[in-house]
């Protein structure tokens, strides 16, 4: 176990004593020898006390902690970590079901593997590296995943072209690194959907809205539904199964609209209740009438960095204000933020302000978050990125 050593400044070990998985660049005093991006390093306090082992990388988050024990990071280490992640999903009842073959297998810090995301679609796992360390270790991690899964996984698709840091100048191509499959249809609670591994956002589908989609289904009967920022139409086909009278899907991406149409056709062939429109969300909301009594607002992250926070909160306020203005009396609004830098309180305040501007009586029915297969480490509250409210609008 011949890892390079990184020393922290005096007093900068306090967050590690609370098991926080990040070390910021400003906490580092010096490296014993020059360290390359993606290398595994041992971290010591100013007085030489061992603190942790992690992946080093240039940038604000300089080290992502893999272990607080002084142990080798090898195939055995990866297999053990991945087995723990799989055991959690088995505990949640998400594996081995006839009506569901989709879930998140690894959720970064929530599974003690910061920088790694793995989603399962049938027999194919889609692996995504958000750090140079996991990019460099991808094959070792892939083989450990096969071993940990014990035959549940046959193919591994690596999809990290857009998630790796640009300053590292890595050459990464999306593609299968284990096996290969042309089958791209997965199932979520009995509904089928196409997975766009090659060009789709995230790993091809937004797995994190699974439980919220199922909740929406319970409210859909007889309603006229508008699914804004629909992407591949997940909320739309749940609304249709729930008995919606009509469902309109809207997204600015023509590619997303085609995927939404094909997903609806997979589940409800020839069903005339669904229409889809490739149009800017704000333009659509401005021109539409008071036609809907169930609206979903699930926009992409308005703020990926803290310097964009103010504009993001203005965006959430404007978006929700327009929905409050247009939704029918007795309507239900599902509204979300997936911006990690926007806190639950900030999002709720933005929606509260929008409700105040509308002058309508609004009640909170549910407060939503990410599902249990996107776990949040109690030591890393930043991992709670998905916030949602279900509102009744009089």
Your description of this structure?
With 394 residues, the protein is an alpha/beta fold. The protein folds into 3 domains: 4-67, PUA domain (Archaeosine Trna-guanine Transglycosylase, Chain: A, domain 4), CATH 2.30.130.10; 75-189, 2-Layer Sandwich (Transcription Regulator spoIIAA); 206-393, 3-Layer(aba) Sandwich (Rossmann fold). The protein is 28% helix and 27% strand. The chain is built from 10 helices and 20 strands. The protein has helices at 14-17, 75-91, 132-136, 138-149, 210-219, 234-241, 254-267, 281-287, 309-326, 344-358; strands at residues 4-8, 22-24, 28-31, 40-44, 50-56, 61-67, 102-107, 116-121, 124-129, 155-158, 175-178, 185-188, 191-194, 224-228, 246-251, 274-278, 294-297, 331-337, 362-368, 387-393. The strands form 4 sheets. A 7-stranded mixed β-sheet has the order 16-15-14-17-18-20-19, with helices on both faces. It has a 6-stranded mixed β-sheet with strand order 2-6-5-4-1-3. Helix 9 links the parallel strand 17 (294-297) and strand 18. Helix 2 (75-91) crosses helix 4, helix 5 packs parallel to helix 6 and helix 9 crosses helix 10 (344-358). The chain is globular, with a radius of gyration of 22 Å.
């Amino acid at each position: 176990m011949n890892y390079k050593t990184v020393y922290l400044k005096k007093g900068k070990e306090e967050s590690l004593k609370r098991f926080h998985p990040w070390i910021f660049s400003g906490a580092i005093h010096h490296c014993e020898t020059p360290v390359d991006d993606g290398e595994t390093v041992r971290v010591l306090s100013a007085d030489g006390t061992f603190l942790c082992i992690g992946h080093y990388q240039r940038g604000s988050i300089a080290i992502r902690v893999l272990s607080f024990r002084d142990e080798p990071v090898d195939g055995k280490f990866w297999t053990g970590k991945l087995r723990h992640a799989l055991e959690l999903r088995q505990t949640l009842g998400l594996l081995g079901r006839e009506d569901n073959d989709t879930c998140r297998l690894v959720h970064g810090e929530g599974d003690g593997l910061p920088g790694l995301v793995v989603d399962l679609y049938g027999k194919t796992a889609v692996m995504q590296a958000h750090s140079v360390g996991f990019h460099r270790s991808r094959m070792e991690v892939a083989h450990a995943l096969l071993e940990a899964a014990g035959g549940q996984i046959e193919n591994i698709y690596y999809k990290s072209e857009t998630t790796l840091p640009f300053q590292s100048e890595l050459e990464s191509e999306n593609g299968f690194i284990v096996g290969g499959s042309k089958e791209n249809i997965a199932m979520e609670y009995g509904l089928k959907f196409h997975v766009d591994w090659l060009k789709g956002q995230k790993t091809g589908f937004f797995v994190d809205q699974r439980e919220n989609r199922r909740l929406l289904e319970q409210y859909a009967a007889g309603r006229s539904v508008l699914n804004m920022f629909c992407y591949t139409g997940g909320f739309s086909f749940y609304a249709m199964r729930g008995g919606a009278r009509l469902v309109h899907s809207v997204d600015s991406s023509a590619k997303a609209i085609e995927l939404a149409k094909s997903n609806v056709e997979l589940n409800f062939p020839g069903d005339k209740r669904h229409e889809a429109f490739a149009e800017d969300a704000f333009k659509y909301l401005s021109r539409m009438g008071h036609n809907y009594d169930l609206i979903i607002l699930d926009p992409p992250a308005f703020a990926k960095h803290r310097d964009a926070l103010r504009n993001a909160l203005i965006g959430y306020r404007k978006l929700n204000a327009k929905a409050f203005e247009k939704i029918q009396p007795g309507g239900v609004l599902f509204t979300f933020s997936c911006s990690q830098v926007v806190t639950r309180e900030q999002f709720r305040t933005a929606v509260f302000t929008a409700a105040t501007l509308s002058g309508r009586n609004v009640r909170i029915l549910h407060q939503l978050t990410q599902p249990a297969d996107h776990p949040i480490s109690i030591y890393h509250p930043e991992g709670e990125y998905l916030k949602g409210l279900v509102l009744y609008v009089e």
